[in-house]
Known about the structure:
Alpha-lytic protease prodomain-like, zinc efflux antiporter activity, membrane, transport
Amino acid sequence: MQPKKKAILISLCVSIVLMLAKxxxxxxxxxxxxxxxxAESIVNVIASAFAFYxxxxxxxxxxxxxxxxxxxxxxxxxxxxxxxxxxxxIIIIFKSSYDFFYPKxxxxxxxxxxxxxxxxxxxxxxxxxxxxxxxxxRSLTLxxxxxxxxxxxxxxxxxxxxxxxxxxxxxxWLDSAISIALGCYIxxxxxxxxxxxxGGLMDESNIELVKDIVVILQENRQESWIDVHNLxxxxxxxxxxxDCHVTLPYYFDLNEVHQQIxxxxxxxxxxxxxxxxxxxxxxxxxxxxxxxxxxxxxxxxQEDFKREIGWNMENVTKNQKHFSQ
Length: 325
């Protein structure tokens, strides 16, 4: 079984067991705060099930209808998970607000705290495992599911502390107050996950990836690479796509242009951390480029070289040659 499928299947199975354990803790204690944790576990199970299907789709090879692969479904999966997390948080806040004014009897808090603590430790371990696997295999779905489980573990830790305080002080209205606070935390994390997934669905450029590419190009730039601009990067599941414009001497023939572009392609794939598909558009140089062009023995130079323009996020991502800045 592929590592990504194995990881999400483990997450799904563990989420089901932990959800049942948390509901047992709720029925034992009748605590709203514990119900908050149990309700979020339902989201964990649904999200893991959907994530498993999205990972299955993302591993399918490119075909005629999906020339960029199926990896973008992972952004949709993360979006669904974020929305479910947010809905769960809102429901928790409303229910806990009602019970704050109309409290119910709470019992056996110590037993409930033990169960929640155990589930929190398990979620912490599974969460780190999913994030590590997701980064290794460039899976947004696994990373999202892992971060969700870490959020769940943090919620459980806060919940256990709250239960201990309630148990020792016998101030039972704290149960609903803690539940409302955890609900707000859950909604916030759902928003962050949804925001990231929407960015991916809208083809938002991968800023961290672009930064890495700019550094690689700047550190390995050749004299014939006069400038690079309009650099963009997107991630579709495990697949990375980069497109940019490279200004080359206008007198290069087609073979030389092809060789220069191939050199850039190989540089990115050897020096970068991910296998990347590049689409590079070659621009001819203009007389205004001469003052920062380092091409030696150029027979058509119209102006002496003055200074090199360093490539950075500010100029490489703009859709214009550097002389026009």
